[in-house]
Each structure stands twice: as structure tokens, then as C-alpha cells.
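Sequence, please.
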């Protein structure tokens, strides 16, 4: 199992520790470093900054939001950074949810998310393979555009720049079983959310028969500490925000996933508290058991024991969320 460092996205401003952490992770033998985006900093610019200060660690977007860019623009970002980094790019994509797609990007959330994702990946693949002009007769991402409000002058184009790697890996963030099954069919890897090693069945039967070389790269908060309950508080804070605030009360993919994992009543309670403005209570309402099973928290010996479960399943890459250099070093030692 390879290790990755997941840096996420910025808060109020740039995190001065991100580049030193990425450099430290590379020295410790970590295979990859990942950035993300929500509705603030973008995923590609910080990753380029890190690329300029490292030499071997692979560079992933975990994830770049599809609504933020047309698929052709995303492919341009990916092939550019792949060239500049010497072939280290991993393109992780995610659809996000209606609240972000419509509230931030000002676009309608697709009524068929699977179709929209499939078309998006098709365009990206065509750009990167550069076997001919890009053409997609799609509902959501048609190329050329032939809508009634167009000029009719668009024509299929082929990238001027030759991609460094036509097979640049494309990974997808997916939560529902149907989405996961499609991800396994059309992508090179999957970025699971809330991965619990003891119950992969939550994501559907497709997880039991993965193609050779297919990446399964879940994020997990990791923290070496003496007090497990205290160490779980950052995990619960993240879950409280995602379950309670990253989506509408009637349509929240994160809450749905928590419910499928056996915490339906708790997920509803977290949403109620968060949407009522009682955020601290929402965080405390996250069950310790749920936070614990999707993270690696506690003394070194406890993490070493629990790490075995991550190794025995389909996980190929563990993406550690940890701002602590000591924790990163311990995890590297335990995984060696």
C-alpha cells in the first residue's frame, strides 16, 4: 500500500506549512501529494507550486470539481502540469453537489450525474490521447457546441500541445454504488470518502472485482496521540461540516453515505443541529465509533494494529490527512 499526503484546500488564506509538508513527505517516501478545492482556492495552482519544489512525488487533485471548468479546460490544466512536472500528474475529479454547482458555479446540477460524469471523462480522455479532433455528441458536454443559442461555427479541434502521457491517470470521487460501479468501468482509480476497511460492501458489489492496476485511494485523517477521544475531535469536526453543511437537508450525498454505513439517525441529527446554527453540538453529535473507523488515530501501537486492516482490502493508496510531520514519519515507518 502506497502512502499519499492529502493537503485539502485553503481556509482563509494559504497555509505556509503545505509546501514543507509535501517536501517532507517526498523525503519520507510518500508516493503522492493531493490538493483540493471547494469555493475558494483552486486545486491546480497550489499543486503547481508544490511541483516546482519537489522532484519525484506524484501530484494529484483530490478532487478538482467538474463544474468549475469545461472538460477541455480541465484536460489542458492536467496536460500542462504533467509536462511541467515530468509526468507526475494524477487527475482526480468530482461532481460535487447541487449546493455548490448551482450556488457557486451558477450551473444546473445534472439530472443524470452518471451521464454527465461519463461525458466529462470522455472529453478529457480524447484530449489527452490526441488521436483526432475531439467530438462528443452529449447532453451535458457536447463538442462542438450545437445548441440553439450558438453560432454554428464551432468545429472539432485537436490539442495543439502534444500531451506527455496519453494515458495520464484519471480518478473519480464517487459515493453511491452506481457511481462507484461506473467509476470502476471508466476511470483509472477511485477516491472514496469515509472508507471503513471492515465494510467495503457499503460501496456496492463492484468493489469486489477491481481491474488490475486500478487505484483505490481513500482519504483518512491520521494522528499519533495518546488520547484517542481528543485525537478524534478534528475528524468529528470535518464530519460535522460535511454531513451537516456540504449539501441541502433534502439532498446531501455525504449524509446518505453515513446512513448507509449504519448511522442514519445520527446523520439526521447532525444535519438538524448544523442547519440550526448549532455547529459545536453537530460536531459532538458525530459518533466516536464512526469517526474512529474511517481514520487512524491514537498511540503508535494502536495505529500499527489498525493499519493492517487497510492493507488487507482493496486499498492501493492511503491518503493521509495530517499536518503533523511526526505523524507522517510514524506512518511511513509503520507502512515500510
Amino acid at each position: 500500500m502506497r502512502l499519499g499526503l492529502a493537503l485539502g484546500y485553503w481556509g482563509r488564506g494559504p497555509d505556509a506549512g503545505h509546501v514543507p509538508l509535501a517536501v517532507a513527505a517526498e523525503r519520507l517516501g510518500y508516493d503522492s501529494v493531493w490538493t483540493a478545492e471547494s469555493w475558494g482556492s483552486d486545486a491546480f495552482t497550489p499543486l503547481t507550486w508544490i511541483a516546482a519544489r519537489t522532484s519525484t512525488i506524484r501530484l494529484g487533485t483530490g478532487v478538482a470539481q467538474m463544474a468549475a471548468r469545461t472538460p477541455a479546460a480541465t484536460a489542458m490544466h492536467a496536460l500542462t502540469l504533467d509536462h511541467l512536472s515530468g509526468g507526475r500528474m494524477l487527475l482526480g475529479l468530482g461532481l460535487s453537489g447541487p449546493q455548490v454547482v448551482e450556488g457557486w458555479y451558477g450551473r444546473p446540477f445534472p439530472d443524470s450525474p452518471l451521464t454527465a460524469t461519463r461525458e466529462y471523462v470522455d472529453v478529457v480522455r480524447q484530449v489527452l490521447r490526441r488521436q483526432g479532433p475531439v467530438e462528443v455528441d452529449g447532453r451535458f458536454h457536447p463538442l462542438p457546441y450545437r445548441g440553439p443559442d450558438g453560432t454554428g461555427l464551432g468545429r472539432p479541434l485537436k490539442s495543439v500541445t502534444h500531451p506527455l502521457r496519453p494515458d495520464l491517470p484519471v480518478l473519480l470521487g464517487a459515493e453511491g454504488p452506481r457511481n462507484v460501479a461506473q467509476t470502476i468501468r471508466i476511470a483509472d482509480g477511485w477516491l472514496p470518502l469515509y472508507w471503513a476497511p471492515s465494510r467495503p460492501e457499503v460501496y456496492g458489489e463492484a468493489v469486489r472485482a477491481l481491474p488490475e492496476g486500478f487505484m483505490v485511494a481513500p482519504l483518512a485523517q491520521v494522528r499519533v496521540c495518546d488520547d484517542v477521544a481528543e485525537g478524534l475531535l478534528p475528524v468529528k469536526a470535518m464530519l460535522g461540516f460535511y454531513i451537516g453543511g456540504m449539501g441541502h437537508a433534502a439532498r446531501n450525498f455525504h449524509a446518505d453515505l453515513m446512513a448507509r454505513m449504519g448511522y442514519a439517525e445520527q446523520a439526521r441529527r447532525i444535519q438538524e443541529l448544523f442547519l440550526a446554527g448549532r455547529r459545536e453540538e453537530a460536531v459532538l453529535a458525530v459518533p466516536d465509533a464512526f469517526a474512529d473507523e474511517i481514520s487512524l488515530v491514537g498511540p503508535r501501537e494502536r495505529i500499527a494494529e489498525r493499519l493492517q486492516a487497510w492493507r488487507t482490502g482493496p486499498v492501493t493508496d492511503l491518503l493521509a490527512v495530517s499536518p503533523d510531520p511526526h505523524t507522517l514519519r510514524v506512518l511511513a515507518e509503520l507502512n515500510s
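Residues 226-298 form one domain.
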